[in-house]
Amino acid sequence: MSVIKQTQTWKGVTVEQRVNTNTGQIEIWTPIKPGAVGIDATAIKLAETYQDGITNKWRVTAPTPYKNLVNTSLKTSGQKELTTKEFNEQFYGDAAQTFNNDRAAVLNNNSNYSTPQIATKNRKGFFDANTPLVIDPTTKRQVSSLGKKSSVALTSQQTEPEDDNQVLKDGRLKDDTLDKRKLYANESGTARGGKAVTYRYPKQVPQGFDFDFIKITAHDYVASGLDVIASNKGGNNYFDADKNLGKPYETVIFPMQPQLSETNAVNWSDDQLNPMQAMFGNAAMDLINSGASFDLKGIQSAFTDLFDKVKEGLQDGATKRAIAAYFAGQAVGANLQGRLTGEVINPNLELLFNGPNLRTFNFNFRLTPRTEDESQEIRKIIRCFKRNMAVQRTQSNIFLRSPRLFKLVYIYKDGGQHPYLNKFKPCAMSNFQVNYTPDGSYATFDKTGSLTAYDLTMSFSEVMPIYSNDFDKDDDNPRDMGF
Predict the structure, then answer these.
(1) What's the mean per-residue pLDDT of the chain?
(2) What distance in Å separates the CA atoms of residue 23 and residue 56, rounded to the nearest whole number?
């Protein structure tokens, strides 16, 4: 069990991570497509870590192929391609941190080593080598994301040690001039908790079998801000699907469930605009436009046009009686026009678009522990969902911080997005229910006290609506069902 393989997606490109539990290094490879032959059946090593003295560093081993893969993905989704400089800055500043989180989750998990003794020995070595986010199994001290050892042990509420020297090469603090993690910790009083680890049910998967599964990852919530106009000049795009996702924490992997569905909907409703409303509406528009530009002649003209239209309508006797009955009815709140003339004013009824709707997804999972380790895994899964969806108070109790968001992905057996199932935008968990006695009776295992079965019911709501430009422009793309 020296090399642990798992997939990760960055900039729309799914790669294979190979974490070596003997050396503590990680390699990033292009995954081999099922059934591929020839050159397509040859994986390319895109990036890797290496040890430089007491520093663990990253290097891109295939810069041109990796950049081309990223730019192809960005171009397909209608986004701006990266220059070589931009690619390097974003890889070392963003992708490397994501890959470091995944590597640490593997290296800090004792079940990824052949014996507990080897786990302790190797993890101590990785800690001494300043491998980012690795925890010393004995002292519980942790290496920071920038490769600096903490001076105190990591508590159960912390996810990363405090580091007073988290400064980037250009002198800025991490997270673009503001260490947001430290700001939030100071305001909340206690950290929210959670680790970048992966839980799986069932815990043991038979060797030689390929399965599709659902991957759910918790992320810190990042506020959208006030920049609601999309920009193509760089920076945060308001319509970026993952703009609200912050640092990742627990990932839970479930098997596919029997019922999978989605509903896409938009909001349309009927609207009326009768001739009277249209007449006054046109006058109001003229007044507003003229007033905005301080056009006094335009304002005078708007009133004149309105007076002329009313005068013209009053020339006909039937129209005059209808108008009088309409306004009299509006004044007393009764349909005088119908009573007096036997007519109603034409409402010009029309169905108009009001806006998008947000999608909601419901999942039900039956978890039945078969071993003591699996019982512990289920307990951790339930606990992490409850903690990540919980609201957190600030130290002053004046404000409440948003719960974490969740990124859901249907994974195909080759490790990438399932080509025949929908994709998800970041979701908020609106409901989480646990049935501890799904079989109608209370039953536990004698040795551990674990319940014999658990039913989990989850409801997720996407935090952003679906827009047309979220879809791949290539309708024949064999790897993309779209949102």
Answers:
(1) 79
(2) 11
Q: Where are the alpha helices (DSSP H) in 189-335?
A: 275-292, 296-313, 317-332
The pLDDT, as a whole number, for residue 174 is 41
3-state SS assignment for residue 291: helix
Choose the weakest-confidence range: 132-136, 161-165, 214-218, 250-254.
161-165
- Tell me: the pLDDT tens digits for 151-182? 655 544 344 443 333 333 333 334 333 333 33
Whether 239 and 372 have beta carbons less than 8 Å apart is answered as no
> Do 456 and 432 touch, CB atoms closer than 8 A?
yes
**Closest residue by Cα to residue 258 from 411, 367, 364:** 364
Q: Exposed, middle or buried by CB within 10 Å (0-12, 13-18, 19+), for 317?
A: exposed
Q: Is the pLDDT of residue 404 over 80?
A: yes
pTM of the model: 0.56
pLDDT score for 232:
45
Q: How far is CA 49 from CA 52, 120, 125, 131, 438, in A?
A: 10, 22, 16, 10, 47
Give the residue from 127, 104, 76, 91 showing the smallest Cα distance to 15.
Answer: 91
The whole-angstrom separation of Cα 172 and Cα 315 is 75
Residue 391 CA, chain-centre distance (Å), reads 18
- Cβ distance 176 to 168 under 8 Å? no
Neighbours of 59 (CB within 10 A): 11
**Closest by alpha carbon to 154, among 145, 136, 141, 138?**
141
| 323: Cβ contacts below 8 Å, ≥ 6 apart | 276, 313, 314
| 248-280 pLDDT tens trace | 889 999 999 888 888 888 889 998 887 777 777
Alpha-carbon distance 469 to 478, whole Å? Answer: 18
Largest CA distance in the chain: 101
| Residue where the block lists tokens 């090469």 | 169
Q: Can you point out the beta strands (E) in 153-200? A: 198-200
For residue 423, the Cα-to-chain-centroid distance in whole angstroms is 11
Structural domain boundaries in the chain: 1-152, 197-264+358-483, 268-354
**Residue among 431, 406, 68 at smallest CA distance from 242:** 406
Q: In whole angstroms, what is the distance from residue 440 CA to residue 157 CA?
A: 36
Helix (H/G/I), strand (E/B), else coil: 346: coil
- Residue 14 near residue 102 (C-beta atoms within 8 A): no
Say if CB 96 and CB 59 are below 8 A apart.
no
Number of alpha carbons in the 13 Å side-chain half-sphere of residue 468: 0
Task: Identify the bridge partners of residue 400 per DSSP, sorted by sequence position.
Answer: 393
DSSP 434-457: EES-TTSS--B-TTT--BS-EEEE
